Amino acid sequence: MESDVENNPRVNNFSVYSNFSDTNTRIFVSVNPSEGSIERTILKDGSELSLNSIQHLNQYKVPAPDKLGLLMPNIIFNCDKNRIVEVLELYPQFNIYSLDDNFSVTVMPEGKIDNYKRYIDNETAENKELIYSGVNGYEKFFVINKINGEKSELWFFNWDGMPLLDIKLPELATSFDIDFRNHTLYTLNFKNDIFKKYDLKDILEGVSQ
After folding, report:
1. What's the rounded mean pLDDT across residues 128-157?
2. Exposed, middle or buried by CB within 10 Å (0-12, 13-18, 19+), for 79?
3. pTM, entire model
4. Distance between CA 45 and CA 54 in Å, rounded?
């Protein structure tokens, strides 16, 4: 994530945003304390995209401004697949939608997909421990780091939200990445500065086909 000043009347003067691989497409995430919400704005070639999925996500609210961090999403984008994925650290569901508004789903932890029929439960979420710690996107799939006590599970999904693979790690990983050239998974635990690597050749060949 980066912070910058955008000279556009539709975007707050100071917003947090991601630069996508398509440099003409940008998503801005702004804080609106008076409304208790996080506002997303997507610009394509300088013009704002009006998406039903964005309007839906922007309606989520928290009861107090100091709880706004609960709604700050981790966002990844696949330009070729036309998919945006949003993962919140304290909510079990995550959202996938497209820039043309022809695709939008909420993926539930049990794998069930429904079209935004379940809403965020703010009262219980603020008392929960971390559920997800990071999400990385790759050419054919994205991976979410699911926290399970003192261990991590890496959940692989295709860009439509269908589950592909679940890797249970023997320890907690606070961040991870995949080296496809050497078929290696790298994990790092910031809590104890332990760095590990795993051979994923057979696994990657299976999910990449």
Report:
1. 91
2. middle
3. 0.84
4. 18
Neighbours of 134 (CB within 10 A): 20
pLDDT of residue 47: 87
pLDDT band at 119 (very low <50, low <70, confident <90, very high): very low
Strand, helix or coil for residue 201: helix
- How far is the C-alpha of 94 from the C-alpha of 54, rounded, in Å? 14
Q: In whole angstroms, what is the distance from residue 142 CA to residue 76 CA?
A: 9
Predicted confidence band of residue 23 (pLDDT cuts 50, 70, 90): low
Q: Which of 118, 117, 73, 80 is nearest to 98 (CA)?
A: 80
Mean pLDDT (whole number) for 158-168: 92
CA dihedral 108, 136, 61, 42 (to 10 degrees): -120
